[in-house]
Structures are given as C-alpha cells and as structure tokens.
Amino acid sequence: MFPWTKKKSLPEFWMNYANHFRTKKKLHLQTTRFVIFDTETTGLHIKNDRILSIGAIGATSQTMNIGDTLELYVKQDVYNPKTAEIHGILKEGSMTRVEEKQAIVFFLEFIKGAILVAHHAAFDISMINTCLKRLSLPKLKNKVLDTGDLFKKTTICPDKNKHYSLDELSAIFNIKKQDRHTAAGDAYITGILFLKIVSHLIQKRHFFIKDLFFRSNRKGLL
C-alpha cells in the first residue's frame, strides 16, 4: 500500500499535475501544447498486461518540437516474450528502465496542461489509467484526441465506418514509417499524421480547436 492511501491527501507529484487543470483555460490552436504519445505493452489486456515503454513528443503552433520529447522504458514483472517479435523490447536489455511508479511521475510531469493525442487513443489512455489505479491515483485529467477519429472528420476519408490503422493512414498521407512499433517512433509518426490532418481541417472557414474533439456521446474505453 502506498503511504498516500492511508489518508485523504494525494502525493505532491499528482497534485502538481492536477493543479494545471483547476482553472478552465481558453484553448487556441496556435498556442495550445499538444502531446502526442504512444505505449508499447506486453499485450492488449487492459488489466493484466503492462506498459513496456512510453514515447511522447510535444507540438505547439502546428509544429512538433524534437527538443520536447519523452522516452521511458519500464521494468517488468509481467512480460510476454511473444510480443517482443513486434516491438523488439526484451525483458532485460541495455536501456535504462524505471519502475512503473517513476514512469508515471515522469509522464504526468511531461503532459501537465497539455492535450493528449494518440492513434486509437482509448487503449493507450486506458493502459495509463490502469497504472494510475494500481498506484491508488485518479484517472488522467487531460483532454484527448484520437487521430483515427480526426481523420474521419476530413473530406479525404473514404469510409467513415472503417477502423483505420496507423499503417494505412501513413500510406494515405505518405508518411515514412521509421522506427515503427517503438513507442517513440510511433509517437513521432502519429505526430506527423496529426499535424497533416489538422492542416487539412483548418482549411475550413471558422475552424476552432473545439472542432477537433470527440463527440460528447462517444463510447469505448475512455
């Protein structure tokens, strides 16, 4: 049991993160910080599987900032060697690894006040929220955008009912798939995809940041 579960107060790192959401701020497309992120995991089971790595990159004013990045590898008690064929992450390796709690501390510090962006975001958000639950912490407070859903808002989407993969959208937008199936690599690819979709969307007259968000009646893991 973590010490903060014995009393009502939450740890300082959580409060520092949560304080960025206490006041409602006006969001503007040119000044809002977006954090595009991806997770690599031991599998697709939200409760039983674990995060192996997190990759994230910040973007502001429709530009990704390669100096504003985060890449974490998480120490593993739960591991599925079959998934290593996809992401290439071994249970033991030369990269520096942190405990799950420390990974969450770093991640919360990086994303505070930002809008999160991911491809098929419900899975990645749910994996992070499950980590938070294991630490007896609340769910993420950030607004979230899904590039799969955003693509369906464009006029170039041929089928609004299709579930588009990152590979399929990379092909449509002619994005090179460098470092595919690494968290940092997929975050970068998703970031380019996000900026291309936004660039297409803002060609509409009177486009506002609120037009990016999910419908209020969305369903899924979020």
Structure description:
With 222 residues, the protein is of the alpha/beta class. It has one domain: Ribonuclease H-like superfamily/Ribonuclease H (Nucleotidyltransferase, domain 5). Helix content is 31%, strand content 16%. It has a five-stranded mixed sheet with strand order 3-2-1-4-5, with helices on both faces. The two termini are 26 Å apart. Mean pLDDT is 86; it is low at 216-222.
What's the story with the biggest beta sheet?
A: 5 strands, mixed
Architecture, according to CATH?
Answer: 2-Layer Sandwich
Shape: globular
The total count of strands amounts to: 5
Structurally, how many domains make up the residues?
1
Low-confidence regions: 216-222
How many helices? The count is 7
Q: Give the name of the CATH superfamily.
A: Ribonuclease H-like superfamily/Ribonuclease H
Tell me the series of helices and strands, N- to C-terminal.
HEEEHHEHEHHH
Cα gyration radius (Å):
18 Å
Determine the fraction of residues in helical runs and give it as a percent range.
25-40%
> If strands are numbered along the chain, what order do they take across the biggest sheet?
3-2-1-4-5
Give the termini separation: 26 Å
